């Protein structure tokens, strides 16, 4: 869980400003995440003041890790949370082949690209 240096108990409720400062996430982003992740529902007091419980803070930490560190989209992070996959690397990174290796290891592709390049160069000379 995020470290708070405010003297409160670890399970104390935190304001949106405190959570924002602890994670380096702007308050408007946290409010947007509340709309995108139905399971993120901090308590709302009179006047709309939000209070994040320990479980909410843990969820914010998980969303932050998935979206900002592992590269998930909001939709992908939402799906991962629903499926309980919260500590794996982003599937897109693992499934994505290195396109550089895919083309440079195929001589026919390189030859075809050279032919196209030469054709374009001669067309520009005309």
Automatic annotation (TrEMBL):
Q: Where is this region: Disordered?
A: 88-107
Annotated ranges, domain HTH merR-type:
13-83
- Entry keyword DNA-binding: yes
Q: Give yes or no: UniProt keyword DNA-binding.
A: yes
**Keywords for this entry?**
DNA-binding
Which InterPro entries does this entry report, sorted A to Z?
A: DNA-bd_dom_put_sf, MerR-type_HTH_dom, MerR_fam
Against PROSITE patterns, the record matches this protein to: HTH_MERR_2
What Gene Ontology molecular-function terms does this entry list? DNA binding; DNA-binding transcription factor activity
The record's PANTHER family line, in alphabetical order, gives:
BLL5018 PROTEIN (PTHR30204:SF15), REDOX-CYCLING DRUG-SENSING TRANSCRIPTIONAL ACTIVATOR SOXR (PTHR30204)
- The name of this protein is MerR family transcriptional regulator
């Amino acid at each position: 869980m995020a470290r708070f240096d405010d003297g409160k108990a670890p399970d104390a409720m935190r304001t949106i400003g405190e959570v924002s400062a602890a994670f380096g996430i702007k308050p408007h982003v946290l409010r947007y995440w509340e709309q995108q992740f139905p399971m993120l529902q901090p308590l709302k007091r009179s006047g709309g003041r939000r209070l994040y419980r320990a479980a909410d803070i843990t969820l914010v930490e998980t969303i932050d890790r998935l979206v900002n560190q592992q590269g998930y989209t909001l939709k992908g992070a939402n799906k991962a949370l629903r499926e309980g996959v919260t500590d794996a690397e982003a599937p897109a990174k693992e499934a994505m082949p290195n396109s550089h290796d895919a083309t440079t290891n195929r001589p026919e592709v390189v030859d075809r690209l050279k032919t196209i390049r030469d054709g374009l160069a001669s067309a520009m000379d005309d």
